[in-house]
Please model this.
Amino acid sequence: MLAFCEGRMESATDKSPTDMVLRRSLDGGDTWSPLQVIVSGVPHAIMDPCPVVEQESGTIFLLYDRYPEGFRMSDVGLGMDSATAWVTSSKDGGLTWAKPENITATTKKPAWSQLAHGPGRGIQTRSGRLVIPCNSWDPNGGRWAFATFSDDCGETWRFGREAGVDMDESQVVELTDGSLMLNMRSFRGRGCRAVSISRDEGGTWSEPVDVPELIEPSCQASILRYGAPDGALGPLLFSNPASGSRARVNMTVRLSDDEGQTWPVARCLDEGPVAYSCLESLPDGRVGCLYENGAERPYEKISLARFSVEWVRGE
Model:
C-alpha cells in the first residue's frame, strides 16, 4: 500500500515550497515505512499526486504537476516558468522511482495557467487505457475537468476535451457498459458534486449533471469501483465531507448498486474536521480510505480507515 502526500515545507498554502513524499506499507496498513521524498521540488511546488497501476507489468505511474517558485495566475504557456505536467514510475512497488519525465507538451493547452492531476487515483480501463482525471484553469478564473490518458502502457500521454465549465478536482470510474464517469467538484453554487459521462474512454464528455445526493462544501472527493479479491466487480463507493454548510466535516462513504444513478446507503467514518480522501480496494477484501483530518482543523494529519462493504451497508 502506498500513501502519497504533498510535503509542504514552509506553509500550508497551495504552491508553497513542496516536495512529493511517500510512505509504504507491506502489511495492509498496519505499519508504515519512514517518509521518503520521491520528487524533490523545493523551492518550487510538486503537487497533486495521482497514481495508477498498469496491471500487466505491475508498473506504478505517478502523474503530478509542478509550479515554479513565484508562480502567478497570469503565467501561461508550456515552459518551466509555468505550471507543467510530469510523470515518474516505479517497478518495485514504490521503493525506487524513475527520473521524472515532462509531459506538458502533450497534456496541457498553452492558454491554461493552472493544471492539476486528481488529486487521488487513476484507473486502467478494461481495454488497457490508463486514465488520469485532471483539471485546468485559465488566467480569468475559468476552470474545467478533463482526462489525460495513455494507450501504450505509460510510454506516451495525451489529453481529451474538457467536461463543461466551473468544474475541477475530479475522479473517474469505469461503468459496467464500458463508459467512464467523471465525478467533479462543482462551482455552480449547488452544494453538490456533478458528473459527466464519456463513451470514448475520456476523449469527450457529456454536459455535467448535478448529483444532489452527493452534498459537499466544495472539496475534493473519491469514487471507486469496488473490486473483490476474486476479481468480481462490486458496487460503486464514494467518499467526501458530507456537509451542507461550508465546514469540511463528516467524512462519509456512500454506496451505489445502480452505477451511480442513486446513492441510498451512507456511513460516516469521521464526524470531525476532514478534507481530501482516496478510496482503494484492499487485497483482504476490505476497503481503505486515506483521508485528511484533525481535532480542530482538517489538515492536522492523514489517517487510514479500513472497513468492509458490509459495514457500509450496515449489515
Summary: The longest strand covers residues 265-281. The CA atoms of residues 37 and 96 lie 10 Å apart.
